[in-house]
Amino acid sequence: MKHPELSGEQKHNFVLPIGSTEQHGPFAPFGTDTYITDYLVNQIEKQFPELVILPTLEFSRSHEHRGFFGTIYLKEETLEKVMFDICNSIYKKADNIFITSFHHNDEVISKFIKEKSDFFQPTKIIYLEMCTEEDEKQIEQMIGGPLDGHAGNTEISNMMIIDESTIIIPTDKDKKSFVDDAFGTDNIAEKSPNGIADNHPKWVVNREVGQKSLDLYTERMVRNLKKYL
């Protein structure tokens, strides 16, 4: 897209994708959440070509992974300021700004929308959810056990579809760590030496799981977008 395409009086629907750069254990890359976010917004763009997809923000709140060198994280208040500045840059030409993230940014995004969206009126700032509890239950049925909290079965399987060259497929000899409430853990390194939080007793990593779970996420995003477009 070039400047003339955004000039004039027409308003647009923007998507602000947020990824992360954080450790994903020994089997998946630092940019896993960014890769998956990119994949999903590319899928919804095929069904909604009128959307203006902004470049994915590759850094967000990831302080719980700070025990692993290479993780780059923003403070929550910094991420809120970044979202504000981006929305402030485009809202005058926007009907809706959808903020979406595969990474666990739900609470920060929701808080930002609750506290700051009035500033951008009449433009609507909307959290575009990728996955619900209903979707998670379907995936758990698919893999025959609990969904991974971080860097486990589904995320490695997702990366098999997106770019298999970036992963190593784990074997039965590779250990997992039981981590209660992985997203609520302040420092995963204290509970999982290898950075994996996956309470499933087995490794279930394959292309079928990867594709079906990505399709579920895409379908959820499409359903949510149809409420507004």
Number of strands: 4
| CATH homologous superfamily label | Creatininase
SSE pattern, N- to C-terminal: HEHEHEHEHHH
Give a quick account of the main beta sheet: strands, pairing sense, barrel closure: 4 strands, parallel
- Tally of domains: 1
Question: What is the top-level CATH class?
Answer: Alpha Beta
Strand content: 5-15%
The CATH topology, please? Rossmann fold
Inertia-based shape: globular
Mean pLDDT: 94
Look at the helices and sheets and give the structural class.
alpha/beta
Plain-language structure description:
There is one protein chain. With 229 residues, the chain is α/β, with parallel strands linked by helices. It has a single domain (11-224), classed as Creatininase (Rossmann fold, 3-Layer(aba) Sandwich). Helices cover 38% and strands 9% of the residues. It contains 7 helices and 4 strands, in the order αβαβαβαβααα. The chain has helices at residues 3-6, 32-47, 76-90, 106-116, 133-143, 153-163, 207-226; strands at 12-18, 52-53, 94-101, 124-127. The chain has a 4-stranded parallel beta sheet with strand order 2-1-3-4. α2 links the parallel β1 and β2. α3 crosses α4 (106-116) and α6 crosses α7 (207-226).
